[in-house]
Amino acid sequence: MAMLHTVNKSPFERNTLDSCMRHALPGSAILLIEDGVVAATKGTAVEGKVKEKMGDVSFFVLGPDLAARGLGEDKLIDGISVVDYNGFVELTTKYDNVQSWL
Amino acid sequence: MSDVKKFLYVNRKAPYGTIYALESLEVVLIGAAFEQDVALAFLDDGVYQLTKDQNTDGIEMKNFSPTYSALGDYDIRKIYVEKESLEERGLTIDDLQHLTYEDEDDDWAEKDSIQVVTAKELAEIMDQSDVILSF
After folding, report:
1. What is the pLDDT of residues A40-86, one digit of tens each?
2. Does A1 contact chain B (CB < 8 Å)?
3. What residues of A are in contact with residue B90 (Cβ under 8 Å)?
């Protein structure tokens, strides 16, 4: 079963992303939404951990939530794909199941 | 007026994911009417509140970030941004809005409101405040 994980909390405020990454199996995907999108940006204290996990799982980030926070796509870690709301829906259909980390 | 107190509003949350940032801004604007000595501090994820080019069209929420540029008109001149918090997030002052106020004691010269301070300096600022409101 390939799982789509969504993370909506900032990694600087909660351990949600940490816990998600610890439990996401190879072949699954992590979609960063709401305050979680800040984990997708370059040069942060969590960039290394995200990059390390990118070898195993695919990372996506919700574009409208990035734009709301003034974070341009030029600021993203290479290899993280931006999706819109339609893309979010497509991901939920592409993967077998969805786990929302809150 | 002898009963002017030093107010410090501490902002530690990213905007839009929770209501804290907007609530803080509303309290600041209400408080500004009482002619107190007001300062704002942005640390931890609060630094994301001040990023420029915020566009909320896609999430269908009100973009309240232009309101920060009005703070100068409310005579709010001290906006402290913590250096360590910026660095931890790969941000610099150039990623933030340019906020200014007009100094009436200096022929209404336009001056920068934002000061980047270290955690140590911010601790001193907190220590010297009379009232701290945390969001």
Report:
1. 999 999 999 999 999 999 999 999 999 999 999 999 999 999 999 99
2. no
3. 41-44, 47, 75
Model pTM above 0.90: yes
Say what the ipTM of the complex is.
0.88
Give B20-77 pLDDT, tens digit per residue: 999 999 999 998 888 889 999 999 999 999 999 999 999 999 999 999 999 999 999 9
CA-wise closest residue to B86 among A67, A9, A68, A38? A38
CB contact under 8 A, A71 and B13: no
Dig out the tokens for A16 from the structure: 């949600």
User: Please, what is the Cα angle at B59 between B113 and B65, to 5 degrees?
Assistant: 10
List the single residue in A with minimal CA-CA distance to B53: A70
Q: Using alpha carbons only, what angle is made at residue A66 by residues A61 and B15, rounded to the nearest 5 degrees?
A: 125
Chosen from A8, A12, A37, A42 to mutate, greatest number of chain B CBs within 10 A: A12
Closest CA to A53 of A7, A18, A102: A18
Q: Which residues of B79-96 are buried (b: 16+ CB within 10 A; e: fewer)?
A: bbbbbebbebbbbeeebb
Whether chain B has a CB inside 8 Å of the CB on A64: the answer is yes
Domains (range + CATH), chain B: 6-134 (3.40.1260.10)
For the domain made up of A3-101, give the CATH fold: Hypothetical Protein Ychn; Chain: A, (3.40.1260)
Domain boundaries of chain A, sorted by first residue = 3-101
Q: What integer pLDDT is reported at residue B1 of this predicted model?
A: 52
Chain A nearest-CA residue for B21: A69
